[in-house]
Amino acid sequence: FLKEEMTSWMPESTQKGAWRDVPEALVRRLVRCHFVDNVRGQTISFPDDAVQKASLRATIESVKGDKITVRYEGPVELVQRGRWAADNTGEKDQERGYRGAILGRGVWSLQGRRFVSLDLVSTGSTLKANHLVEVERIMDISSRLVVNPAALKLKREPLRALIDAFEAAVKKTA
After folding, report:
1. pTM of the entire structure?
2. Considering all CA atoms of the chain, what is the largest pairwise distance in Å, rounded to the nearest integer?
3. For residue 69, what are the β-bridge partners?
4. What pLDDT score was predicted for residue 1?
């Protein structure tokens, strides 16, 4: 994204609770160019007409000095019809797409007029949305939560809640 576009990711007011919808053109570009269909391998970007739904709301969570913490969330739906190879039988007419949500958090510096940090992730149901099923397990993977020891001491309660949520999710799927 261009430097001059960054302010449009922020609400106009710097008050806690203030919100703004990120301009649709920016959200559409984000989802078209950065959401990749990894089910079929790395494919080309989605065309603009594949974007069925894409919005992102920025809400100020806190203001501390010149740092503003902003939460981002919004739905995404991409659908494209075309010819792709889904297996070793060759290309066939089918649909590719993604249905999910963008979630994120950023820290904006009022003084620097820039993001100090910005993390956006997406969670969705690509397999289910495309009527796909796992056919072969290639390998098991694992994830690790890394926490700065100082942050664990200073921000114990919110981090404990996050750790507990991860543990509950793991137990639920086990």
Report:
1. 0.68
2. 60
3. 62, 107
4. 79
